[in-house]
């Protein structure tokens, strides 16, 4: 049975995915969520001795073995493929049925990318028809970028809070771009190059962020304001501003909290909610990392 997770959306898009639905029967779901229109993720712990079949999934899956997994084999013909273990990755393309012999314990992290989102990314990256670019299956391989992104930029985050959900969306976009650049069948093609954001669009995005700091902003929402795709927006924003969109939004949240602490008397818990943090404790952690001071200490020396 799956256990209730700290981050769990009852009507999440991820619940429609084949890989997710095959695991939910005998694995513990630690947490799961959708992050914008292109990225979903799930964190699993599993102990089983079963044959698992993923039948014709309509999504791509990036899988990282966080812990365990040495007893898992990819069943292909008469000789199953071994090689699972901590740090190993698997790419499971859409519309490829695969069988897995599962023995023992494993902790898994999955990123799910709907095929429609992948096709949009192909057009945006290469300016060619999506059906000209495929993702081959890869099993039990090492990829430092995937492992570091998951372990350092996704697993530590609180998926329930606006400040971290945007960082999840950004990390997922990074991994999708990595798939295109490193593993697609047309990685020989150069990515389309664009410049930065115009001053008018930059101001429009800045104003939208400032007006919605209490909301769970996503890369897709900011891209829509800029009238760009999420893929191109993230690259153009970084080129113009010098930091990733989620880093910019976090900085704006902290700066808004600093202003409220200096110029008002609202409780810190209220300031946390108005700046997109889930609690006073969450604001305190991020504020201290950013300024070197707790909110209370900052208020005491700035008023």
Automatic annotation (TrEMBL):
<dbReference type="Pfam" id="PF12833">
    <property type="entry name" value="HTH_18"/>
</dbReference>
<dbReference type="InterPro" id="IPR009057">
    <property type="entry name" value="Homeodomain-like_sf"/>
</dbReference>
<keyword id="KW-0805">Transcription regulation</keyword>
<feature type="domain" description="HTH araC/xylS-type">
    <location>
        <begin position="203"/>
        <end position="301"/>
    </location>
</feature>
<dbReference type="InterPro" id="IPR018060">
    <property type="entry name" value="HTH_AraC"/>
</dbReference>
<keyword id="KW-0804">Transcription</keyword>
<dbReference type="InterPro" id="IPR018062">
    <property type="entry name" value="HTH_AraC-typ_CS"/>
</dbReference>
<protein>
    <submittedName>
        <fullName>AraC family transcriptional regulator</fullName>
    </submittedName>
</protein>
<keyword id="KW-0238">DNA-binding</keyword>
<dbReference type="InterPro" id="IPR050204">
    <property type="entry name" value="AraC_XylS_family_regulators"/>
</dbReference>
